[in-house]
Amino acid sequence: MEQQYSLSRRTFLAGSAVAAATAGLALSGCGSSSSSEGGKPSGSAANTGGVITAACSYKNANYNPIGASSALMLPAIQHCLEGLYELDYFTGESNAALAAGEPVKVSETEYEVALREGATFSNGEAVTAADVVAVIEANKANATYKDMLSFIDTVAAKDDATVSFTLAYPFVDSDKQLKERLSLCRVFPAAEITKETMTTPPTGSGAWAFGECNGEDGGELNFVPNPKYNGPKPASADAMQWLVRVDNTARVTALQEGTAIAGENIPFSNIDQLVGAGVTVDSVDSYGIGFLMFNCQKEPFNDKRVRQAFHYAIDYDKLIKNQLGGNAETLTSYLPKDNPAYHEASTVYKHDPEKAKALLKEAGQENLEVKLLVIDNWIKDLSAQIQQDLQAVGMNVTLDVQAAPYPTMAASKTDEILPFDVFLAPGDVSCFGTNADVHLAWFYGENTDWCQGRSCWAKAGDGKCQEFNEYLDQARKATDANTRQEAYNKCFDIISEEVPLYPLFHKKVVTGYWAGLIEGFEPSPTTGLYFQNAKLK
Fold first, then answer.
1. Longest CA span, the chain
2. What is the Cα–Cα distance from 371 to 344, expressed in whole angstroms?
3. Does the pLDDT of residue 105 top 80, yes or no?
4. Which of 205, 119, 215 lies closest to 162 in space, CA to CA?
5. Is the pLDDT of residue 31 over 60?
6. pLDDT for 298-324, tens place per residue?
7. What is residue 385's three-state secondary structure?
8. Distance between CA 129 and CA 106 in Å, rounded?
9. Strand pairing category for 422-427 and 369-375
């Protein structure tokens, strides 16, 4: 399994001790009141004190862990619910959580995993193998996760404390992939499992438990220590409070004034402001992307020449410099260069307006009318320049900024062509892992919402999505690394040429925090804030 470990970081250091001291007054309720040995199993609640506060940039009110992909709820669920294994975003390693240790290999396609002794939900009920099996089966049936878990053929409870897995086929590094993918399946009582939206939080066995929660903009998620937790990383404060602040100004203000001790998704234009106030700001390499997605069922976007013209029209260097403050990297393939599976794609896009014009002329689309759908978050700040770049090659582009466009992109049961033209949005699949299979399957797998709906690439009629998935299947079933990489390379080449959905850049994650008031906190290389190793000073 490919994993990526080396992450570069640019830190903008706070230089005002006076400002930090002022913030310390504002955050006096968050100070440490006691201490004990961290990192050891504990049956007690918090081992320091105070309240860890955070300013979050995304909203969501669905607490269902099955198929969870919300940029707000996924990290929240990870603090409260355990998988058999936990993916460490900072090292790329998958470590035992509910599992007592490593998977035991029974045969080339069979593994067994024992549960941690004494693992208990916050309601006092014991975690059983039956709960684990029910959760994994529900995720295997979920449209969001099923492709990522498709290599698991069956899962069963061998006894109350042991789970058995049978894989669909043998493949290279199967034990590592099993651990990483099982981190997706966050365990909660089987009786609570539902396919519907969950309006109240689930019960977990993690270090934290959900308190009162409102995931809408302006609301907050509250967490309390789970007194039944017996794992290696107990809660390190008396409480956590996550402020849901979608608006950039509200989030930056909460951090600057000390209402929050850490804040995510800091706009580059506010970095100097926060640093001047005493906040430390880190810019960390990530797999985060801004992308263009085309309606591949709709003319003329079913013509790859038109799709390619968009990518040649955009001035990437100008976009990164002016709109992102240099906090992004141009790309030569879907994955960053430091991923072990990296392969320079057969088609690499650079700003070439003349080539864009030539492609449009060749496709008979010299006066193309386009409505560019833009999701209403940080990505909308890029839309004006992208609009100008596209208009410079002869397109007539109007912007349509929407807060929640995804329901209108659901796959049509009658194969009716969806109404949108082109979509500008952000994405970051690394919350599910950094191996190539996860990233390729998420946006391009035939069985996902993305290719059946949204981009509709699977319905384009040119067979390219099917060809891509044949190579992806070869990579999945490869029993040696070279064969797998050759198949991945074909995948990277196809999507770079077809661009049904393709990145414009790899974005850095910019996080602000009061370094003098919290220790063990690391700005995440993926979406979200994570406090499992943090405690207040």
1. 71
2. 31
3. yes
4. 119
5. no
6. 999 999 999 999 999 999 999 999 999
7. helix
8. 18
9. parallel
pTM, full prediction: 0.88
Examine the pLDDT at 27 and tell me if it is beyond 70. Answer: no
pLDDT tens digits along 435-451: 999 999 999 987 778 99
> Do 225 and 46 meet the contact criterion of CB atoms below 8 Å apart?
yes
Reading the block at residue 521, the tokens are 């906190």
Rounded Cα distance between 530 and 186, Å, is 16
d(Cα 471, Cα 476) in Å, to the nearest integer? Answer: 9
Residues 101, 58: Cα–Cα separation, whole Å: 34
- Residues with Cβ within 8 Å of 432's Cβ and at least 6 positions away in sequence, in order, are 148, 184, 438, 442
Is pLDDT at 25 greater than 70 in this prediction? no
Half-sphere exposure of 507 (CA within 13 A, CB side): 29
pLDDT at 16: 43
Q: Label residue 48 by pLDDT band (50, 70, 90).
A: low
- Give all strands (DSSP E) within 366-437, no chain letters: 369-375, 396-402, 422-427
348: CB partners within 8 A, 6+ apart: 332, 333, 496
Please list, in sequence order, all residues whose beta carbon lies within 8 angstroms of the beta carbon of residue 399, skipping any fewer than 6 positions away: 371, 372, 374, 383, 384, 387
Q: Report the alpha-carbon distance of residue 99 to residue 515 in Å, rounded.
A: 33
Contacts of 105 (CB under 8 A, 6+ apart): 111, 175
Indicate if the alpha-carbon torsion angle 446, 449, 455, 460 is positive or negative: positive
Q: How many helices (H) and strands (E) does the chain have?
A: 14, 20
